[in-house]
Write a structure and sequence with these properties.
Two copies of one chain form a homodimer. Chain A is built from eight helices and twelve strands. With 233 residues, chain A is an alpha+beta fold. The first copy, chain A, has two domains: 77 residues, Arc Repressor Mutant, subunit A; 135 residues, Beta Barrel (Elongation Factor Tu (Ef-tu), domain 3). In chain A, strand 7 and strand 8 form a beta hairpin. In chain A, helix 2 packs across helix 3. The radius of gyration of chain A is 20 Å and the shape is elongated. Chains A and B meet through helix 1 and helix 4 of A and helix 1 and helix 4 of B. The structure holds a DNA duplex (19 and 19 nucleotides).
Chain lengths: 233, 233
DNA sequence: ATTACTAATATACGAGTAC
DNA sequence: TGTACTCGTATATTAGTAA
């Protein structure tokens, strides 16, 4: 699996507690809870509810303000990311598997995307919407000829939208992140996204991949190595 | 909360185990797993993986065939239902507040729901949770065929829960009330709720509507008149 | 009313082992 | 290899209590 973020520090019981909070407060709002009430919904004692909230707090998945007669809690960005990771798993189970199988080979160009990926305006969205913080660089895949046509099928795959933004100097365009699985000789890597800039005229023959780890290392990839990219799977 | 099905008998750790199995086998297929491999994916020992599979099996959420060199497992219908319950919660957290547009026509059957609606155990809850005291009868809508499939999308709509209760003679089950708008030739009626019994096997092709007024009068409805029901709007 | 501590008890875990 | 026992130990839970 990989991915040792703060979310792994809490167990499934804590995550279920966070989910109940999110159901009540939404992802951005705050809600007043009492340990007794929360415990009842969780089928546990108020002490257990209290402890779970503390652990969620310690792990940074939840922010609390304890008052005399209860506490206001909000789900943090890290908490939202943790929940989204779970959500994406369930989606993979229940959603129609509209997947597009593409073939190609590793090509150079680890450099160009790197700069953009690591910009905070993008990185924040990756963390919140993809559920992980990508390695600051892209793996570029040069698509085989027969895959160029199939590439159009990617539009049927549900993508995660990344919004455009701007700083003082310039604007940065929006993009779409298509969930994908990368298959190489060295093994499979499940949590990959193909990132496609929305507006700019990019090279249709290349696919840029991001992932929690440096894919070249994780799969021991060599230059020009043949790959399969299962977009939407 | 209640809902004491077999699924509640297992903890969140077991459900997470079931999820991993579903990710590999799909909802219908079977997959060969080893406790050692499963334990690694779950960040636990093989003994723990073994115990979790046993408990899932005991709870009827998973079917196993243990062979000499591993075991084939499949997610049962009850297991799928348990996972779907989780999934629906995540959808409510992450999905946009959806509305489902259903079409159908007025049908008779004003009678059956009438008795239940007017029972004080329900009527009190309607007053408190829906904000009005419904006319003591339901408008039954026979759904058009294309709307039958869309009906499943209603589960993503946030409903008002009506608790079950009992008197000396019998028990009355819980139900869900989905906020809806009714559109007919005679006009629109905004404050409608589609009431769906929770447990009992009810007719999926019919939708029972309650509202502060008698809908037949308020919208001057005729038998078999075509209607639109916007659930969640 | 709350939250959260302490301490007794129940449960879960994993090493070792049998088959 | 595999599953699934037993059993000593670690962790989680909850009643009681303090603030």
């Amino acid at each position: 699996m990989s991915g040792t973020t703060a979310a792994d520090a809490v167990g499934h019981d804590e995550l279920a507690t966070l989910r109940v909070v999110a159901l009540d407060s939404g992802l951005t709002g705050e809600v007043k809870v009492s340990c007794a009430g929360l415990g009842e919904r969780l089928d546990a004692s108020s002490q257990t509810a209290s402890r779970r909230l503390q652990r969620l707090d310690d792990a940074g998945l939840l922010a609390r303000e304890v008052t005399g007669d209860g506490q206001w809690v909000t789900v943090t960005d890290a908490g939202e990311a943790a929940l989204r990771r779970e959500y994406e798993q369930y989606r993979r189970i229940f959603e129609e598997p509209t997947s597009v199988e593409l073939r190609g080979h590793v090509t150079s160009g680890m450099g160009e995307g790197r700069h953009y990926i690591s910009l905070p305006g993008y990185m924040e969205q990756f963390r919140d919407r993809l559920g992980y913080e990508p390695f600051p660089g892209t793996l570029n895949v040069e698509l085989a000829e027969e895959s160029l046509r199939r590439r159009a099928g990617m539009e049927a795959v549900e993508a995660v939208a990344i919004d455009g933004w701007q700083d003082e100097d310039r604007t940065f365009g929006p993009a779409s992140c298509y969930p994908a699985t990368l298959v190489a000789d060295g093994g499979r890597y499940e949590t990959v996204h193909a990132i496609v800039p929305e507006r700019t005229h990019h090279d249709e023959s290349q696919l840029e991949l991001i992932a929690p780890d440096r894919l070249r290392d994780a799969l021991e990839l060599e230059d020009d190595e043949e790959l399969e990219v299962h977009v939407g799977a």
